Amino acid sequence: MLAKTPKPPYYAVIFSAAQSANLDGYDDMVAKMVELASQQNGFLGVDSAQGNPEITVSYWKSEEDILNWRSSIEHQEAQKQGKESWYDAFEIRIAKVARAYSFQK
Amino acid sequence: MLAKTPKPPYYAVIFSAAQSANLDGYDDMVAKMVELASQQNGFLGVDSAQGNPEITVSYWKSEEDILNWRSSIEHQEAQKQGKESWYDAFEIRIAKVARAYSFQK
Is the pLDDT of residue B1 over 90? Predict the structure, then answer.
């Protein structure tokens, strides 16, 4: 259920967003983007918590993999729609994961 | 509504968790921990998306600030209760934020 990532270091894209009142087509686009991202080179996993705010964190092998995903055509179209319709505000942070700890019951 | 952080670099604690069926006392503890964290040295902000998974990302000036918060007594008590009651699994990742982009409508 939670993303299973390898031993650090690797990279994270932290996306936090304030959703707008108009969420038409949003769920379908999220599912499509998760599927597309998972086919990209260097994709390691993703966790997404829906709600307001929404937080989605995707994990990647390298910064180059993140740049490639960021510039893919379908992803750019989703970003455009996100700005026009679904989000009042968002913040994207690119971070290098240095340490990780797990707990499992 | 979303955390307002300074220009990078700074540090992020990415907490992703699979919640258990027992959430007694959980909301109160989250509110208390957010309040306590915001009084710590080096605290820059926090975003939390409730749901299953839950994702909470807090932002800090330095890795030392994160270690201090991690070892504070009240926080350790909350971590203990989290493991015993509220979470089936969680992952904590410490990351250095290198770049950030904002969108605001």
Answer: no
* Amino acid sitting at position A93: R
CATH of the domain at A41: 3.30.70.100
Confirm whether B104 is domain-assigned.
no
Q: What is the pLDDT of residues A25-83, one digit of tens each?
A: 999 998 999 999 999 999 999 999 988 899 999 999 999 999 999 999 999 999 999 99
Q: B13 to chain A, minimum CA–CA distance in Å?
A: 9
* C-alpha pair distances (Å), B78 with each of A12, B25, B74: 26, 11, 6
| Domain containing residue A57 | 10-97
**Which residues of chain B have a CB within 8 Å of the CB of A5?**
91, 93
Residue that the structure tokens 């299973």 belong to: A4
Q: Is A21 on the interface with B (CB under 8 A)?
A: no
Q: How many domains does chain B have?
A: 1
Q: Is residue A5 part of a domain?
A: no
